[in-house]
TrEMBL record, chains A, B:
Keywords: ATP-binding, Kinase, Nucleotide-binding, Transferase
Entries under InterPro entries matching the protein: Aminoglycoside_PTrfase, Kinase-like_dom_sf, Methylthioribose_kinase
Molecular function in Gene Ontology: ATP binding; S-methyl-5-thioribose kinase activity
EC number: 2.7.1.100
One Pfam family recorded for the sequence: APH
Name used for this protein in its record: S-methyl-5-thioribose kinase
Native species: Acorus gramineus (Dwarf sweet flag)
PANTHER family noted in UniProt: METHYLTHIORIBOSE KINASE
Family: Belongs to the methylthioribose kinase family.
Ranges for domain Aminoglycoside phosphotransferase: 37-275
One Gene Ontology term from the biological process aspect of the record: methionine biosynthetic process
Subunit note: Homodimer.
SUPFAM superfamilies assigned to the protein according to its UniProt record, in alphabetical order: Protein kinase-like (PK-like)
Amino acid sequence: MEGNGGFRALNDKSLVDYIKSTPLLVSILGNQVEDLDIKEVGDGNLNFVYIVVGSAGSMVVKQALPYIRCIGESWPMTKERAYFEAVTLKEHGRFCPAHVPEVYHFDRTMSLIAMRYLKPPHIILRKGLIAGIEYPLLAEHISDYMAKTLFHTSLLYHSTTDHRRAVAEFCGNVELCRLTEQVVFSDPYKISQYNRWTSPELDGDAEAVRQDDTLKLEVAKLKAMFCERAQALVHGDLHTGSIMVTLDSTQVIDPEFAFYGPMGFDIGAFLGNLILAFFSQDGHADQANRESYKKWILGTIADTWNLFQKKFTSLWNEHKDGDGEAYLAAIYNSPSLLLLAQTNYMKDLFHDSLGFGAAKMIRRIVGVAHVEDFESIVDAKKRASCERRALEFAKKLLKERHAYHTIDQVISIIHEFNQ
Amino acid sequence: MEGNGGFRALNDKSLVDYIKSTPLLVSILGNQVEDLDIKEVGDGNLNFVYIVVGSAGSMVVKQALPYIRCIGESWPMTKERAYFEAVTLKEHGRFCPAHVPEVYHFDRTMSLIAMRYLKPPHIILRKGLIAGIEYPLLAEHISDYMAKTLFHTSLLYHSTTDHRRAVAEFCGNVELCRLTEQVVFSDPYKISQYNRWTSPELDGDAEAVRQDDTLKLEVAKLKAMFCERAQALVHGDLHTGSIMVTLDSTQVIDPEFAFYGPMGFDIGAFLGNLILAFFSQDGHADQANRESYKKWILGTIADTWNLFQKKFTSLWNEHKDGDGEAYLAAIYNSPSLLLLAQTNYMKDLFHDSLGFGAAKMIRRIVGVAHVEDFESIVDAKKRASCERRALEFAKKLLKERHAYHTIDQVISIIHEFNQ
Ligand SMILES: Nc1ncnc2c1ncn2[C@@H]1O[C@H](COP(=O)(O)OP(=O)(O)O)[C@@H](O)[C@H]1O
Ligand SMILES: Nc1ncnc2c1ncn2[C@@H]1O[C@H](COP(=O)(O)OP(=O)(O)O)[C@@H](O)[C@H]1O
Ligand SMILES: [Mg+2]
Ligand SMILES: [Mg+2]
Ligand SMILES: [Mg+2]
Ligand SMILES: [Mg+2]
Ligand SMILES: [Mg+2]
């Protein structure tokens, strides 16, 4: 099958030929490419992912096709997203190699990325959360990832020259941004053929979202921030399905939605998905009592924000005399003034994160794409009850986020909605 | 003199040859190019501007050189600014032809724009304000210009696809943005070789600006918004020296600083410069009593904002079912909800405008580039007294802008500082 401009959609067979004709990939496989074991594992929504295992090496090959996999050719989507994913893996990997898989090879024509295979026991974090597994290092690792990637791609580290150049490049990933605009900030708040929810249980709840003027006004502000504000190179899809974990490793994959946007979009995605995991636990509680696991999730939420804040601020202090142009050392020239600037910055970022986190929660309950945390609760009544509590919490958080000053206050409210 | 890549700096003589070899320009001059009268009038800071008058037609030719004219080759500045100026004149002219001179010709290699000659009695607005001339249509016209140009280049009118494409292009004007970042948001708040002020009178005042932590924290927020927020295609230098007027015409020139930035940056530049004009009037009061003129300025400030708000909102209503993606009609689907959205939007824009306006005032008093309104007050004591009142007002406005809800409240405070 000949694609346009040299592009061909690969399959298990043609991928072998592709690998054999690409010396770098052959060498990564230790020059042993005769008995390759190839498995397509794309459980994601958009792309094809192949695990390639040979006798002397392994890798993962991800290919983007010019449409959305889980919907089909009827929803076209530029395969150039692979380019932005590759650039972001490399850029984020440069600043945080411990938590981003290494990119071995990128082929723009083929929209194909070869990267490190995150071997078992790595699993997708969301699955671990559903199984009730505690990851003691998760907050430490993910706060590290977020602090390093967001700080180093912001104006606290970049000159405005570097920043605008990078912003311009990532404007090219507009199709993926538009998908987010639609499914996160628009569809849940209107009638849309794509929306779905646990029905009939949540019919009234979905309708209430569409009728909630205060909520819609707040969502408009977040959407504007998403579309207008180039604060840092964000991952753009940092939910618990974009993170692979073991008990001592945390790896962030799948940044195909990356662009220069508000930092709170990433932080909120992660925290919001942990909160979804929290509210889903009662639906999984027949296997085991989940109370202590719920505590661990809440602790991880608190630790993530608190550690992020600490690490981000440390990076700022470390680089305060560097090239970053947002706060020139000659102006913010006393420790007390710098501290005030940091406090202001963190306060705004906290509120942004809560807002985006809440919006991401809402869309997972009444929008097109749901989360396995809830979907795997077979009993619809039980599922609806979990979802409703998450939704009510998220609505309150979105509307009242500016009233919260610490993550502990947010956690108290989660407790309230957990009754 | 051969420049790089075909660029040559023109002079009165070589400009004639350039015109003669450019058929379009010849035709604009009615094919009469033998007795051209050429006068270089670049009173601006950056570029060379030639008025070309023939027996059957006229034009203005503006050329950017690869440095800042008023400083010299020691401060290089990309001549590509002419490209962004030309694109913006055309784009703004498309939406507001009544208040933007027509571009006849643009030569990117030569960084040269030929445009309509704004004939006498057109003068630079700032000079009219110094002379105490009332322009009864100014608020009407400039509110029209700002509403039309800002609305039509925002996400209220653009799809996000068009918006990101345009944002990416204007990221290229980063050198000019950097100049603003330096002279507006940084230098006044630190020791800089470029800063100057009426000395010794304002030595303490300049020092106080550098020591004012609250002010510096607020300026950081504005700088971040300037660098990160691509809200609309702003003129970028909309002071009263970038506007030419007669009693019945208002024309906006010189958008070489244009980029996708916060709308409040333009609105604030205009309002802030009118406020500077207001505070300078007492320095010109020996020629005539300026009390009624000061009233007119304040009335123009109020009218400009109020008319802008009305016109911008009308455009929004008119296009609410159009391609703009910020507020989808299916979501913001009741008149009362839309009105609330507009009220929120205008409130934020008002505060942004006051903040940027104040920052622009401050930098004109203690930064590198001053305004003729004050500079033309010969008596240093008198000048310093005018400047000090303007500076104190601006500092208060920058710090407390969120406390104001109407332009009339701002005007009351101006009155207070006028005592
Ligand atoms: N580097 C990797 N190592 C191991 N498994 C991976 C790797 N990258 C992706 N996967 C697996 O493939 C799945 C889909 O990958 P992902 O990048 O999320 O694709 P999509 O963009 O389609 O969501 C992941 O959920 C994970 O199970
Ligand atoms: N289209 C025009 N018609 C008449 N005079 C103009 C025109 N454009 C510029 N000028 C004159 O030239 C001066 C400098 O032009 P401007 O575009 O402001 O240049 P600069 O970028 O150097 O500030 C203006 O102040 C005005 O007096
Ligand atoms: Mg994925
Ligand atoms: Mg993906
Ligand atoms: Mg000028
Ligand atoms: Mg100028
Ligand atoms: Mg200029």
